[in-house]
Amino acid sequence: MIVAFSVSPLGVGEDVGEYVADAVRVVRESGLPNRTDAMFTSVEGEWDEVMDVVKRAVAAVEARCGRVSLVLKADIRPGVTNGLTSKVDTVERYLSEG
Question: 28-40 in b/e burial notation, b at 16+ Cβ within 10 A?
């Protein structure tokens, strides 16, 4: 499964990069395939391990601010691995064809 999520602290003002970095650090230290862009962090793995990473990422932000917003989108597709890159590769292939 692939989960794309965004975790943001609430009530700390506009500069949230330091808090978001705490969440991304948890994801990167998990060892699961992941990618971070301007809006979301995506992580790929089995249900329990991915949800554990999301939970710990939220906890890392919550520990510093007390209130957190979480947006989560999941692609649950048993048996698929390397979806984090293969889905993008497919789109790139179509773009290069035409």
Answer: eebebebeeeeeb
Q: For residues 45 and 5, is the Cβ–Cβ distance under 8 A?
A: no
pLDDT attached to residue 88: 87
Q: How far apart are CA 82 and CA 12, in angstroms?
A: 36
Q: How many whole angstroms separate alpha carbon 79 and alpha carbon 58?
A: 27
pTM: 0.90
Q: Where are the domains of the chain?
A: 2-97
Around Cβ 74, how many Cβ atoms within 10 Å? 14
Rounded CA-CA distance 97/87 in Å is: 16
The answer as to CATH 3.30.70.930 being correct for domain 2-97 is: yes
Name which of 22-26, 38-42, 57-61, 76-80 the model is least confident about. Answer: 76-80
Residue 9 has pLDDT above 80, yes or no: yes
